[in-house]
Amino acid sequence: METPGTDSSVPPPHVLIFPFPIQGHMNCMLYLSEMLVYSGFHITLLLTDHNLSLLGSSSNNNNHSHPSSLPDIPRLRVLSIPDCLPADHPRNLDGWVELLDSLKTNACPLYKSLLLDLCKMDVSADGFPAVTCVIADGILPFMIDASEQVGVPAIAFRTASASSVWIYYCIPQLIQSGEVPFRDGADWDEPINSIPGMESFLRRRDLPSPCRLAKNPEDKVLQLLATCTAHSERTRGLILNTLETLESISLEQIRAHMPTTYAIGPLHEMVRAYRSQNNVCAHDKSVSLWHQDCTCMTWLDQQPRRSVIYVSYGSIAVMTQESLIEFWIALVNSGEHFLWVVRSDLLRGEEWTNIRDSLSLEVRKGTEERGCIVSWVPQVEVLAHPAVGCFLTHSGWNSTLESIVGGVPMLCWPFAVDQQINSRLVGEVWRIGLDMKDVCDRTTIEKMVRAAMNGETASEIRKNAHELAKMVNNSVVEGGSSFENFQRLIEYIKSLCKRNVQ
């Protein structure tokens, strides 16, 4: 990977990167930031004050110190703006629409003012040149428009799977065909025919949750996602954290409408591969809004190879007390060892410790003997551990990619947004796991845990997962599709920056 030239007449590219302020989006775009730094760019990563404070550093618009939870990388600085929500607002899936509305209505003018200031400075006090390009989260189209209004070219980045992006783009067709909203009494296993390229495997129940939940065509969330996705047609380009061979059908369809689309994932593996090949000291840090309990690694060290089922529902999913109890009893009854991530905000209105105390002595004893329950873990490291035999996951895209790279089969229990289609890809298209969507009873969960960990089914999906991991790992090294797409993206950003300063 080459560094841009030293022509003094052309300022070095300086890209401002603005993720939607939830952990999965921030992590993904931090990896992109690091890769762009390795390519010689200056990067400003823009977070919200709320999240920057959670990362261990108080912040205001003029603060660009690095929080302790973020890597200290040369030419990468962190700035922040307020999200303009009360401190106690739930910034999870229950409150993400309000967060988006506040960013659009209240924070966007602040962003525009900050960007104007960053464009005026030839060189700032910390040696950063003027911003010459913006890469903003694709679900922040108003930030992309604000960037262009200031005169800075902007590229969209969608952190979800290409397949979900393609479905969101096709929401108008789903509505026109009458397939969405679902009619009363609809068969959820009925095939969907309005998504080109997916007719052979897509069912009603595999559509993203906004399609499943909408009661009328004007549903706010449904229209919001359709509008955000259609907006990417009007941006300078679209970046996706995926790879050509993994989602070739969806990428082909997307490029028919958005030709300047770059598939450059999995980004976390791109970063790891670059560090390894160029002897870059690995800092192994990501954006974590929770304290990582690394004692789980010691516990894993004590378990036999492929004997542990790792359980995590991601960073923003929430669940009911009843669902958690069903999973808990099923995990214990399966007889398998399990490492279970239970975030402090996982449950709606209930402390999980209260639930633990209400369980039977048998379940509590089984947990003590075979279980390890923690609040958060270094997930990439966990998935690379030889003791892990399966990942019971919510099927978020970051988690899905991390499991694929680790060659770990999945047991999918999708919760919301793109997770339903991701779990269908895992179970039906790639055949590297089992899809357990729309099921939450202890008997079924126990049965599927056993199937994913032992026997003929486990052997098949383990073999498929191993083969897919090799294919994905090959994509991020020189000559691989993601590596080459990233080189093209670098040259494209340089061209935008040069035009912007002329």
TrEMBL record:
<dbReference type="InterPro" id="IPR002213">
    <property type="entry name" value="UDP_glucos_trans"/>
</dbReference>
<dbReference type="Pfam" id="PF00201">
    <property type="entry name" value="UDPGT"/>
</dbReference>
<keyword id="KW-0328">Glycosyltransferase</keyword>
<dbReference type="GO" id="GO:0080043">
    <property type="term" value="F:quercetin 3-O-glucosyltransferase activity"/>
</dbReference>
<dbReference type="GO" id="GO:0080044">
    <property type="term" value="F:quercetin 7-O-glucosyltransferase activity"/>
</dbReference>
<keyword id="KW-0808">Transferase</keyword>
<dbReference type="InterPro" id="IPR035595">
    <property type="entry name" value="UDP_glycos_trans_CS"/>
</dbReference>
<protein>
    <recommendedName>
        <fullName>Glycosyltransferase</fullName>
        <ecNumber>2.4.1.-</ecNumber>
    </recommendedName>
</protein>
<comment type="similarity">
    <text>Belongs to the UDP-glycosyltransferase family.</text>
</comment>
